[in-house]
Amino acid sequence: MAPRKSEISKRKANSSVADDDEPPQPSTKDVYRNGDLMLVVGEDFGPAHRFRVSRDTMCMASTVWRAMLSRDGQFSEATQKEVAFPDDDPHAFYLILQVAHLQFAKALQQMNLEDLAEVAILCDKYDTVALVRPFIPGWVQPFLCEHPAVDCDDCEIEETHLGVAGNEEFLTVAWGFGYSNAFRMLSEELLTTVSTNKLGQCVTQHGKILETKYIPPELIENLLAIRGATVLKIVQTYYKFFDKVWDKDNCKARPNQGSSKMYRDCCHALHLGRQIEAYETLSRINTLRTDEEMVAASAEIYANFHDVGNALGFIDGMIFIEGSRHPMAAGSHAVCDVSNILMHEMDQIIDDFWTIDIVQEADRTHMKSQWKKANLDTKDSDTG
Fold first, then answer.
1. Which regions are flagged for Basic and acidic residues bias (predicted)?
2. pLDDT at 4
């Protein structure tokens, strides 16, 4: 899959000469006028951008670039006068190069979320988080709280006013720069709102498919695994009680006189109808039996978990009065607790779901490491 173009990569590049039949070619930018190395960046996004830089500065800015470009290095780039970075966003790359060469004007400007995500991706990829550390609070803070960054040195980030809907790219920013608390909160919100499609992909509230470029792939895998396991438990529990109701012998409301058959029929209709009403809001209903069929049934429930929980609310106890059809005192099927027991088990599944830790230990370790890079704050993470 071709890399996704950010807004900054979609902008038309300046060019002194443009052919009518060809897109304008970006001119060479002298990041360092007397530079001894030419970088060709972003060919996968369109016309490549060319940056003249200092090889020694590149080596000092990043351990990754040092290994790649050092004159005594083992890579072929060590002796090349021109080095290509075809799959990197050229504008994000340019910003990092400017910081490395002590040009800070653009780094002091606020970025939109998609552009910031591109910078975070490259900083993580090339180990330049320490290089840009002085600018990160100014980039990130506006998305975390309503305080200006300069007034927010002691702000405990217990919540973020940035909702996950439409802002999924901030997960990459938080992961790349070490904002573990924001990453956790947005991941938890995403877990309850994400749905799936027939291809098994994660789909956001706005119908956007989550891309592994902007969302850590292990997070997407974890989202799918947790959601899939929970929905399967719901389906298995549902069919256990569906079969019980199907047996038609669960009525505990007995008349003092006359036939109890009508009571049993009403009880059966009550419980079966409530369960069908709950399940048909999520998927089609059929009398599945095997484990394999239940796994398949759970895979066909594409709704997000918030909607799943709402649908389960249809299953509850309900007073059913036959007084108008019988001369005896009115009876109630509230004592016929099949649906109540089912709802109790469903509630337990939902409660267990809310206790699941969506953030994996590897992600915590990574973010803790990113937070510490050139961070003068003595805290281990953004949570203190």
1. 1-10
2. 44
DSSP β-ladder status, 49-53 and 195-196: unpaired
Contact 253, 336 (CB under 8 A): yes
Q: What is the mean pLDDT of residues 302-316?
A: 74
Tell me if 252 is assigned to some domain: yes
The answer to whether residue 336 is domain-embedded is: yes
Cα–Cα distance measured from residue 215 to residue 203, given in angstroms and rounded to the nearest whole number: 12
Beta bridge partners of 202: 196
Torsion sign, CA atoms 353, 358, 360, 364: negative
Task: Examine residue 343 and state whether it is found in any structural domain, yes or no.
Answer: yes
Residue 145 lies in a domain: no
Label residue 331 exposed, middle or buried (CB < 10 Å: 0-12, 13-18, 19+).
buried
* 5 or 140, higher pLDDT: 140
Q: Please, are residues 275 and 244 in contact by the beta-carbon 8 Å criterion?
A: no
How high is the pLDDT of residue 160?
53
Number of domains within the chain: 1
- Cβ atoms 41, 51 nearer than 8 A: yes
Judged by average pLDDT, the poorest of 131-135, 168-172, 234-238 is 234-238
- What is the helix (H) or strand (E) element at residue 196, kind and residue range? strand 195-196
Contact 224, 231 (CB under 8 A): no
- Per the structure, the complete domain to which residue 272 belongs is given by 224-354
